[in-house]
Structures are given as structure tokens and as C-alpha cells.
Amino acid sequence: MFNSLQGRSAVVTGGSKGIGRGIAEVLAKAGINVVITARTQADIDATVADLAGLPGTVSGVAADVTSPQDCGRIVATAVERNGGLDIVCANAGIFPSGRLADLTPEDIEAVIGVNFKGTVYIVQAALDALTASGHGRVILTSSITGPITGFPGWSHYGASKAAQLGFLRTAAIELAPKKITVNAVLPGNIVTEGLIEMGQSYMEQMAASVPAGKLGQVADIGNAALFFATDEAAYITGQTLVVDGGQILPESPEALADL
After folding, report:
1. What residues have CB less than 8 Å from 112, skipping those under 6 apart?
2. N or C: lower Cβ tally within 10 Å for the chain?
3. H or E segment to which residue 62 belongs
């Protein structure tokens, strides 16, 4: 059904854990050569070792996406190792909790710096390589939180994720003549290290709010990203895909009471 992506080149920021690792694994299983990024070399090394032996290679580079210089180095590394760059998955993100009344300027800047500025910087750094590809793909990991829903303690996080979509729509227009598409996946509650750290009670509460009756897996987001990376998705740009098991659908908890 889909043309092979074997041998194409991708960058996945924040790819050593959680959703980013899931995206990297799905892409590598499709034969794509992936460079993952993270701030900690030990996390990169562990993930690269775990994902060895897939049809596509997985390697890593320690970098901070809040630095435009580091983003340039990430792209240069992918081009050098894999002969070019076709796909950028701007996934790096942080989600510290903080109530609005308590947020400091530093709290806000940290979240906006990684989640929004980091997205812009990695896309900017990759423009020449994606243009040279002839089938460039930019895939953002946003969230249902911010663009669609809200949750106490994450006003700064929600703002950063909504900002990604404002960026996406104009970037998609500007980059369309270069045959580069820009799309986003909006995950609901996905089982990651960060979600597990919030505790079993939180996870059960979230699962109970999902019509599918369960939390998502990182591969669910990886599969959505893979679709946007395909040749068959070449006429899709500026769009968002919610992957949440139906979480945003019920108008109240009572809507799920009889399921």
C-alpha cells in the first residue's frame, strides 16, 4: 500500500525516552536511518543499544534543542552519517507542573524554550537539507493539552503546545513550494516514564476518561508520525492528528458511565 521508506534519514529530538523513543523505533523498523537527540549521553547510549538490529540504523547525538547552534550540529550530524535528511520529528518536550499563581518567569521560559523555541530552531536548522531531499517531512509532537483541552498545573505547557500549532500553519504555507510538509500529532495520555512517575492513581484516572478504556502506547504515536513521513501523505500539510483513544470526545464523565 505504501512506498518503502528504506534508506531515508530522520532526526527525532528527545528520542531517548518516551514518545520520542517510540517514534524512533517505529521509523527504524520501517528502514529509516534515525539520529536521536537528548541532553544526556548515557540515555542516548542506552536507547541506541536497545534499538540495535532494526532494519534502519539508530544513532545519537547529545544536544540541547534550546540552542540554535546545537540544532545546526544535529542536522549536520544526520547529513554526515546518513547522506542527507528527509524527516524531522520535533518531539523534544518537558512538562513540569506548576499552578498559574506560582509560575516564575524561569518556569515559563524553560517550557517555552524547549517545547516551542526548540521546535522552531530544529526546523530552521533543517531547511536546506529538507529542501535538498525533495520530499521533506516535518512532524511535530504537540498534545491535546493546550490546543484542545486544559489541565490544572499545565497552563505554561498547554501554551507551548498551542504555540507549536500556530507555528505549524504558517510554516506549512512557507515550505510547501519546497515540497516540505509540516504536520503534527496530538497525543492524549500515553504510557511513558513521565506518566508512570505521576503515579498509579493518576494513570487509572486518565484511563477511565478514555472511551477506548486504556492509555495509549508510544508506538501509537510512532505509527502516526510514520504515516506523515510517507510519500502517500505528500498532499497533507498544516494538519493535526489527534491520537487519544477518543479522550476528547465525551462532554462529561457521565457519557462514559454506561460503556
Report:
1. 156, 159, 160, 163
2. N
3. strand 58-62
> Per the domain annotation, does 211 fall within a domain?
no
Please report whether residue 135 resides in a domain.
yes
Report how far apart, in Å, the C-alpha atoms of 206 and of each of 95, 158, 189, 231 are.
16, 17, 7, 35
Alpha carbon 132 to chain centroid distance? Answer: 23
Count, in order, helices (H) and strands (E) of the chain. 9, 7
Q: What is the pLDDT of residues 77-134, one digit of tens each?
A: 999 999 999 999 999 999 999 999 999 999 999 999 999 999 999 999 999 999 999 9
Tally the domains of the chain: 1
In a domain, 105, yes or no: yes
Tell whether the torsion through CA atoms of 77, 82, 88 and 90 is positive or negative.
negative
Residue 27: name the closest of 78, 66, 76 by CA: 78
Question: In whole angstroms, what is the distance from residue 224 CA to residue 240 CA?
Answer: 10
CATH of the domain at 133: 3.40.50.720
pLDDT tens by residue, 12-31: 999 999 999 999 999 999 99
202 flagged as catalytic: no
Nearest alpha-carbon partner for 163 in 114, 225, 102, 127 = 114
Range of the domain at 129: 9-190+218-243
Q: Which residues contact 80 (CB under 8 A, 6 or more apart)?
A: none
User: Of 121, 157, 202, 235, which one is the catalytic site residue?
Assistant: 157
- Decide if 59 is inside a domain: yes
Quick one: DSSP state of residue 117? I
